């Protein structure tokens, strides 16, 4: 008895999903835009604005897009950009050493950045050990597939590395909306991390073009990884950030091996560095090489390593509001007693072991 009603509901839903109701707002004008399910009549003047929607169940031959193409000046439409969009956003680097640099960075400048290359967060709890072993297992198929194709490996690495920040930011954004409270200052940092990893990918794409099999692998891995990490973050944000931290540790190992191959002459240290890398990391256009790009990206990965381990630690301590400690650091800096309380150090694992016993 419910079949006719269900069938009718499905048809209505299908019709509504396939229809397209679009609007264009222009001052002092009357614009009619048709769609398969409704007609929007918008009238605007200096004194009032009225909108009338006339429901129409009859199908029309032209979609909204077709109506716009045939009835509006396309060039005028594309040039009529809303004022908030009248800027070209320029991604910012992740490290303060690069942001604060007054002159373009040379090889010596990049080598002087202290990234604590051998820093490793020793897993001391069961969740941390699970996270560490998961990352180690994920490295095995990557090594088998790419072997010494380091640039192609980097493309795959960055498509994976760009996921955690975006997922974490999305989940925390939605949680902030649900609870109607501030997120503690995480979202901006997480989005910045995702953007930074995307810039890594765009840079490597200037150096090489992956073949069809590698592109197919990227599509499959990204589709699986995004959904798995999303589910994991809903279940345990602490473990998710720990996995991200260990992924960054593996990225540092991979880029260090990449640098060794360049230094040993197995990979040519080319000087044709793309503009996207020079502009983003403020590299010296006259001296920049592939090695400089690898060092800059490795330094970024070290920053993500520290950040994600720190995020996981904060979740354990239930001290997720970054703003409180940042204010305290600034206050201490004014009294010349500033100390680093938000970073990761070599004895962190021992401290956690004592704290959690």
Describe the structure in your own words.
With 357 residues, the chain is mainly alpha-helical. The chain has 14 helices and 3 strands. It has helices at residues 3-18, 64-71, 74-79, 96-99, 107-111, 126-146, 150-179, 187-207, 212-235, 237-263, 275-281, 290-317, 322-334, 348-356, and strands spanning 30-34, 38-44, 49-55. The chain has a 3-stranded antiparallel β-sheet. Strand 2 and strand 3 (49-55) form a beta hairpin. The longest helix is centred in the middle third of the chain and has 30 residues, at 150-179.
Mean pLDDT: 78
Q: Give the percentage of residues in beta strands.
A: 5-15%
Gross geometry:
globular
First and last CA, distance = 62 Å
Number of domains: 2
| CATH architecture heading of the largest domain | Up-down Bundle
Number of helices: 14
Which secondary-structure class do the elements indicate?
mainly alpha
Give the oligomeric state.
single chain
Q: What about the largest sheet?
A: 3 strands, antiparallel
Order of helices and strands: HEEEHHHHHHHHHHHHH
Question: What is the assigned CATH homologous superfamily of the largest domain?
Answer: Alternative oxidase
Compute the gyration radius: what is it? 26 Å
Question: What is the CATH topology of the largest domain?
Answer: Ferritin
Question: Helix fraction?
Answer: 55-70%
| CATH domain class name of the largest domain | Mainly Alpha
Main location: membrane
Pfam family, one: AOX
Cofactor: Fe cation
Protein name: Alternative oxidase
């Amino acid at each position: 008895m419910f079949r006719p009603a269900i069938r009718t509901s499905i048809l209505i839903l299908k019709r509504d999903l396939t229809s397209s109701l679009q609007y264009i707002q222009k001052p002092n004008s009357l614009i009619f835009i048709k769609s398969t399910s409704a007609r929007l009549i918008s009238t605007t003047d200096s004194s009032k604005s009225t909108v009338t929607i006339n429901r129409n169940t009859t199908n029309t031959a032209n979609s909204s897009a077709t109506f716009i193409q045939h009835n509006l000046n396309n060039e005028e439409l594309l040039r009529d950009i809303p004022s908030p969009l009248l800027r070209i956003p320029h991604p910012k680097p992740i490290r303060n050493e690069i942001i604060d640099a007054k002159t373009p960075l040379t090889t010596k400048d990049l080598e002087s950045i202290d990234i604590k290359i051998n820093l490793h967060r020793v897993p001391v709890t069961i969740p941390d050990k699970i996270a560490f072993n998961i990352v180690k297992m994920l490295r095995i198929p990557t090594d088998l597939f790419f072997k010494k194709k380091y640039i192609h490996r980097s493309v795959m690495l960055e498509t994976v590395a760009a996921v955690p920040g975006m997922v974490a930011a999305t989940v925390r954004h939605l949680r902030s909306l649900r609870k109607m409270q501030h997120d503690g200052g995480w979202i901006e940092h997480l989005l910045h991390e995702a953007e930074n990893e995307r810039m890594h990918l765009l840079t490597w794409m200037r150096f090489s073009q992956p073949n069809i099999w590698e592109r197919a692998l990227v599509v499959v891995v990204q589709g699986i990884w995004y959904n798995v990490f999303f589910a994991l973050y809903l279940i345990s944000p602490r473990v998710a950030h720990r996995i991200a931290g260990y992924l960054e540790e593996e990225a540092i190992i991979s880029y260090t091996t990449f640098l060794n191959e360049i230094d040993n002459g197995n990979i040519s240290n080319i000087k044709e560095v793309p503009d996207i890398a020079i502009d983003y990391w403020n590299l010296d256009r006259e001296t920049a090489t592939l090695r400089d790009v690898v060092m800059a990206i490795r330094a970024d990965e070290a920053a993500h390593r520290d950040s994600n381990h720190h995020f996981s630690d904060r979740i354990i301590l239930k001290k997720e509001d970054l703003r409180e400690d940042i204010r305290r650091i600034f206050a201490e800096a004014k009294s010349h007693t500033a100390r680093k309380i938000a970073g990761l150090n070599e004895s962190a694992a021992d401290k956690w072991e004592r704290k959690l016993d």
